[in-house]
Amino acid sequence: MPDLRNLPSVDKILQMPEIQLLDENYGRRLVTNAIRGQLDKLRHSDLDALSLISVALILEGVQNQLKEWTDPTLLPVINATGVILHTNLGRAPLSRAALQAINDISRGYSSLEFDLTSGGRGSRYLHAESLLTRLSGAEDAMVVNNNAAGVLLALSALANRRKVITAASQLVEIGGGFRIPDVLKQSGAHLVCVGTTNQVHLSDYEEALGEPAAAVLRVHSSNYKIIGFASEPSLTDICAVSHSYGIPVIDDLGSGTFIDTETYHLAHEPMVQESVRNGADLICFSGDKLLGGPQAGIIIGRKDLIHRLKKHPLARAVRADKLCLAALSATLLHYLKEEAEQEIPVWRMISEKPDELRTRAERWRQEINQGEVIPGESTVGGGSLPGETLPTFLLALQTRKPEMLLKQLRSLQRPIIARILEDHVVLDPRTVLSEEDSTLLLELHMLLKSG
Ligand SMILES: *Cc1c(COP(=O)(O)O)cnc(C)c1O
Q1: Which residue of 147, 205, 288, 430 is 20 to 30 Å from 343, comparing CA positions?
Q2: Is the pTM higher than 0.85?
Q3: Would you call 206 helix, strand, or coil by DSSP?
């Protein structure tokens, strides 16, 4: 049996001078709890050499425990993967103006739901609404927490206990548990599936529309592509036939974009304005995918339908907060002023020229005096443009243990997220913000120097 009398008391440790600093940093209560926990652990350990336990060792344990309890888990990282809309890394970085708006609106009070003209109650829906209708050409707009919430709200408000017609080819899973059939079920709608996985005809829709239905739902396939013998009717045709039966069409665009991706030699990603023009009655898309703003779900479309959505009880549960509305409005303003490609990081990254990327990768190589610059490919990500790539240049680091180097990069003070390509660890400058360059180089320098 170890001799427990060798353990100092909590009070005794608390009186030690080393505790002073911990007290200031963490507060007395947390420090006391950590000491208690540490002593408990020692009492229950089967060390038969408790006499070897020094006070210094106990203090070290206390310090580690306090760090573990308080160190943040949500940390800024440097994205060197070349995946622009990396969902696991938080999707879109925000523009300077969007950050400023968040700062301005969150440090004090705001006119979130306050009408400055009348002095009475206002509506939070107002803030991004006019920008969205102006940009898209839709009658009305509302903003919710994210696109998944937007789709759920639209279906709940329009189709609860009624039928929703969807093509078999569009019963997609976006990832993260968002599956169209499950969302339909959750909204209380009954799915009427038309067509087959690869072939959906307009006549399939027409047949289904013979029975009463609440809506037709079109879903953008987002993160996969069916190639070969595959076809679907156009949105224009789906809308025409649905409208002839008086049935509204909900278009879940997923990413959605205001800028034509073909400008950058990418495949055509469905544009918000097109969807409005082609006749969709409600259109849902994300704030933090190709739009390049904060996490948000944007719903635009017919005034009467948006009105029903705003009145639905679920609207309150999925509403956007003021930080989101501030950042989203600032982001939308970039589109209105036609400065999106310069101001919104996602579009700056998409539009960055290979020559510029080569120059940056080359400068990195010179600074750290290691690796080689090779041509490579970046991707857009975020459930858009599957299989599409943007030509880039990578800094490739040779190492015998690439997995190990990746891990070391992840454990830096400012973690760097890279990837492995043919046994090399590669860093893509496309997704590294220019203001992160100096941090990246400093971290790399120290890591590589230490072997
Ligand atoms: C990404 C996506 C969603 C979910 O959007 P979030 O903003 O992540 O909630 C829904 N539908 C489609 C088609 C998508 O691509």
Answers
A1: 147
A2: yes
A3: helix
